Fold:
Amino acid sequence: MRYIFLIIVGILLLTIFLYNYFILYRLIKLFTTNRKIKLLTLILNTIIFSPILLYPFSIWFVFIFYISLTFVVVDIILFMLTKTFKITISHKLYKIIIIIPFIISILVTSYGYINAHNIVKKEYTITSTKIKNDKGYKIGLISDVHFGNTFSIQDLEKYRNQLNDENLDFLVLAGDIIDEFTKVEDYEKVFNMLGSINTKNGVYYIHGNHDESRYTNPKDNRKEKLLNAIKNVNITFLNEESINVTDDIIITGRIDYSYRNLGVRYSSNDLIKNLDKEKYLIVADHQPSIYQENKNAGYDLQLSGHTHAGQIWPFGYVTRAISFDYGYLKEDNFNLIVSSGFGVWGYPIRTEEKSEYVIINIEKE
Structure:
């Protein structure tokens, strides 16, 4: 998986580099007739791309990506105007037109940065005949914090205080709370903060695909330190196991789907077979892509994250093509809630949806 991702990123970088060269060449040609224009373009393009090669997960890369993307649209429009409709674009007008992609890219990237740092509350209400408590239950859902990318401990404390005011029955941490970029010394700080959120019946955590830094080869015992950080706070780690949370609700916590070939992830049928089907059965499963398996097994509600709702436009089209990637889905008696995530991965930018924490009200039908 790691190598596939690197190949995709490499192809994307090469494509943008070549197209950006073409863009620069045309820009420079507008203002100079220097014979060495191709060499000058290559040098400038290399300078522009050097920061990206040194640190691919940068705001600069997103900015360059949107410039290239916007220029594609502009080029298509110009081609249609000049070739299809035979409209002549003056040299002066062309100089004005080519400024547009830069303005759009600055605005979109700036919005994406602000949006990634602004967490909103998303709320859903579900009813079920399995709920006997007249008051119902209020559940919190946090996924994909990817701590260290956009937030500090002080930021996390602010939202901890907001969640304290919700008077939750319990809280689910649906994976990727930390990742490869999180400092090991921050593990305990992060889980201490999340474990201190006030709930009546506890905080429950499952692994995502990034929590154990599986896409790198860390030398600092991250897996062991992660487990220690969880054990030392008021958080229950559910690893292919279930627990009675309330008189009406049982929650099953799953290890991420990316572990499926390691022999540590069981079938949904195996996990549910000994559970009381008269109770409301919740499964916390980081990736939503195989929700049908959990639905067919008999779970009532699945809580997921992982997709980030695409995070950076237009990649949401990809995540939506793979599976239901964001929001609330109801099929028969099965409910699926997929969060866009509390944080962002890799790039501190979000131009698809909002970063969020989720409140789920489960009421008596």
Notes: The radius of gyration is 24 Å. The CA atoms of residues 289 and 323 lie 5 Å apart.
